């Protein structure tokens, strides 16, 4: 019996130590797993039993503000005055706009909205999405003016051989235009009067353009007066040209009808402190598309065919309409002093023409 006890004691101790070692390993594993969970580590696939997953915090979406554009019909492209109330909206998101500084908002449709009612406008526009996110507000201003101005007051007076049309009734910052072809095209006027000399154009039309670009009804001015002194056939003598009276006009129209053998010679004097800004063909009616002009800086046209004595010369016809033939001439040659124009058609077809002169004060 004693021998058996001596043998059993070591065996029992060995088994006890083995079980204790296993328990310590299991406990260590549980501690390590809990530590990994507490530190956010990967403690195995999926959440621990009995623990619900925590959803991430939602992140607000940043929306780009829309880009706005409109048609500025005013005196400049940046004065904010227009007669057209449509605004274009460029954005990749939905958008909305407000006319009362954000107190109320209207959902936008398509890519534009209309401003209505004349007067100054304050406009707010922003992008938005279905989650309620909005962009920064784009704030713009404009002045809407859709009312046409009153017709101009055109008063015609006669002086020497010229006809003077005085322009009145313009709104503040309004301007005026004139037409020589029954309103098919319009030319800008300068100053407050228009002087005309010639015998080709029976009717002149004038109208007002206000700050927003609205047009007044056109006013008709009768120029045809075959028995009067202002229905003037220009001189055919280069040494005795017709004299144009500027009458303080900054815009002047010379008009005539020429054919082979019938040249027009017209003289004018550039006032002191002024320059001849431009000389343009503004009307041409003929089956022959080529006429001829020359300009001499002298009180008569005695250059003959010597082009070295001419300030400018060349063919003139439909391709030259609205071209300033003085563009490449030095300003010093276009200041105070006399000038004489020669205009002629060398073919057998009658040619009606009109040449516009614009004078400007020296800067």
Summarize the structure in words:
- The protein is mostly beta strands and 363 residues long.
- It folds into two domains: 78 residues, Sandwich (Immunoglobulin-like); 209 residues, Jelly Rolls (Sandwich), CATH 2.60.120.290.
- The protein contains one helix and 22 strands.
- The strands form four sheets. Strands 9, 10, 13, 16, 17, 18, 19, 20, 21 and 22 form a ten-stranded mixed β-sheet that branches.
- The longest helix is centred in the first third of the chain and has 37 residues.
- The radius of gyration is 44 Å and the shape is elongated.
- The termini are far apart.
- 26% of the residues are buried.
Secondary structure topology:
Layout: H1 2-38, E1 67-70, E2 81-82, E3 86-90, E4 94-98, E5 106-107, E6 112-114, E7 119-128, E8 138-144, E9 153-159, E10 162-168, E11 175-179, E12 187-188, E13 193-198, E14 203-209, E15 219-222, E16 242-243, E17 251-258, E18 264-285, E19 291-296, E20 312-316, E21 335-344, E22 351-361
Parallel strand pairs: 2-8, 13-17, 16-18
Antiparallel strand pairs: 1-3, 3-6, 4-5, 4-7, 7-8, 9-10, 10-13, 11-12, 11-14, 14-15, 17-22, 18-21, 18-22, 19-20, 19-21
């Amino acid at each position: 019996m004693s021998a058996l006890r001596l043998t059993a004691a070591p065996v029992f101790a060995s088994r006890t130590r083995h079980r204790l070692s296993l328990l310590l390993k299991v406990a260590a594993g549980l501690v390590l797993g809990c530590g990994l969970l507490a530190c956010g580590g990967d403690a195995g696939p999926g959440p621990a039993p009995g623990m619900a997953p925590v959803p991430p915090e939602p992140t607000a979406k940043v929306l780009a503000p829309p880009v706005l554009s409109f048609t500025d019909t005013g005196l400049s492209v940046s004065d904010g005055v227009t007669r057209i109330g449509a605004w274009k909206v460029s954005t990749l998101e939905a958008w909305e706009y407000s006319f009362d500084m954000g107190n109320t908002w209207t959902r936008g449709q398509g890519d534009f909205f209309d401003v209505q009612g004349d007067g100054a406008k304050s406009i707010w526009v922003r992008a938005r999405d279905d989650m309620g996110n909005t962009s920064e507000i784009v704030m713009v201003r404009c002045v809407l003016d859709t009312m046409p101005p009153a017709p101009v007051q055109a008063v015609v007076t006669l002086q020497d051989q010229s006809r003077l049309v005085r322009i009145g009734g313009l709104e503040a910052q309004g301007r005026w235009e004139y037409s020589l072809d029954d309103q098919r095209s319009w030319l800008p006027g300068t100053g407050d009067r228009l002087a005309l000399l010639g015998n080709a154009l029976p009717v002149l039309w004038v109208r007002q353009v206000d700050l927003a670009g609205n047009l007044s009804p056109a006013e008709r001015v009768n120029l045809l007066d075959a028995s009067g002194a202002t229905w003037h056939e220009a001189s055919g003598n280069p040494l005795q040209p017709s004299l144009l009276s500027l009458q303080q006009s900054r815009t002047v129209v010379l008009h005539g009808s020429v054919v082979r053998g019938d040249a027009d010679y017209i003289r004018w004097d550039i006032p002191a402190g002024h320059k001849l800004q431009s000389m343009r063909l503004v009307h041409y009616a003929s089956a022959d598309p080529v006429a001829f002009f020359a300009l001499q800086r002298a009180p008569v046209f005695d250059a003959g065919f010597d082009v070295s004595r001419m300030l400018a010369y060349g063919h003139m016809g439909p391709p030259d309409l609205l071209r300033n033939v003085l563009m490449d001439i030095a300003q010093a040659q276009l200041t105070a002093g006399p000038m004489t124009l020669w205009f002629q058609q060398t073919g057998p077809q009658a040619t009606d023409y009109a040449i516009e002169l614009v004078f400007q004060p020296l800067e």
